[in-house]
Amino acid sequence: MTSIDTAGLKRMFDAIAVAIEADKDRLCQLDGVIGDADHGIAMALGFGAVRDALAPLDLAATEPTALLNTAAKSFLNAVGASSGPLYATAFMRAAAAAKGKATLADADFIALFQAMAQGIKDRGKAEIGEKTMVDVWLPAAQAAAAAHAAGKTLSEILAAALEAAEGGAEATKGMIAAKGRSSRLGERSLGHMDPGAASAVTVIGAIRKSLP
Ligand code: ADP
Ligand code: MG
């Protein structure tokens, strides 16, 4: 069993910032097709702000919950697009799930991951099939919980989550947008991957790579 401490969570956010920065142009292009072409910029601003806010923290004196609340606040302040409050809520819920814990065991991390997915769903009020990042986060969280229940290692759990995430993002191509900016396109949104679903795969992929 793995145990994730504050330093591990910081490494995770640093890895997400690097992955999102590298993916920025593709995410803007995807958003250009069914939205306003800013999604890569928004996500890079958000995770860049998280990285900068976490950098000066004294990790030995910071609990996971405090780090996650710092991430939530900095992401929200940096991002004006709709992804801002969605990810900020995810990190706030993660902070609540980690409250009182100095380190996170596998079960704790799965609970945190599920809390993030549920937070995004609650904040945006999107259901599965409405062509949003929820179509990635929910199946990924469900796959993680199922893999954990089946006794898999954290690395296997996150691999299962990533696979479900990729399937979810691919599936958004066949959906008509019902939430957010792209819902104005109606049927014209068909055939294109949702940008928030695409970035969620990048985030989950970075989480998988950064954790043991
Ligand atoms: P904006 O639409 O304000 O420009 P972004 O471009 O940063 O914001 O993010 C767009 C993404 O946000 C969409 O691709 C979708 O995945 C996600 N999104 C938008 N509205 C919602 C919602 N109500 N619930 C969940 N996700 C949403
Ligand atoms: Mg946009």
Describe the structure in brief.
68% of the residues lie in helices and 2% in strands. The protein has 212 residues and is mainly alpha-helical.
> For the record, what CATH class applies?
Mainly Alpha
Number of DSSP strand runs: 2
Number of domains: 1
The arrangement of helices and strands along the chain is: EHHHHEHHHH
Structural class: mainly alpha
Mean pLDDT: 97
Strand order of the largest sheet: 1-2
Beta-strand percentage?
under 5%
CATH architecture label: Alpha Horseshoe
- The total count of helices amounts to 8
- Using the coordinates shown, work out and report the CATH topology: Serine Threonine Protein Phosphatase 5, Tetratricopeptide repeat
**Which stretches are low in confidence, meaning pLDDT under 50 for 5 or more residues running?**
none
Q: Categorize the overall geometry.
A: globular
How many whole angstroms does the radius of gyration measure?
16 Å
Which homologous superfamily in CATH is the superfamily?
DhaL domain
Q: Quick one: biggest sheet?
A: 2 strands, antiparallel
Describe this structure as you would to a colleague.
The chain has 212 residues and is mainly α. It has a single domain (3-210), classed as Serine Threonine Protein Phosphatase 5, Tetratricopeptide repeat, CATH 1.25.40. The chain is built from eight helices and two strands, in the order βααααβαααα. It has helices spanning 6-34, 39-54, 64-78, 83-98, 106-124, 134-149, 154-171, 195-210, and strands at residues 3-4, 104-105. It has a two-stranded antiparallel sheet. The chain starts with a strand and ends with a helix. The mean pLDDT is 97. The structure holds adenosine-5'-diphosphate and magnesium ion. Magnesium ion (MG) is lined by residues 31, 35-36, 38-39, 81, 181. Magnesium ion is lined by residues 31, 35-36, 38-39, 81, 181.
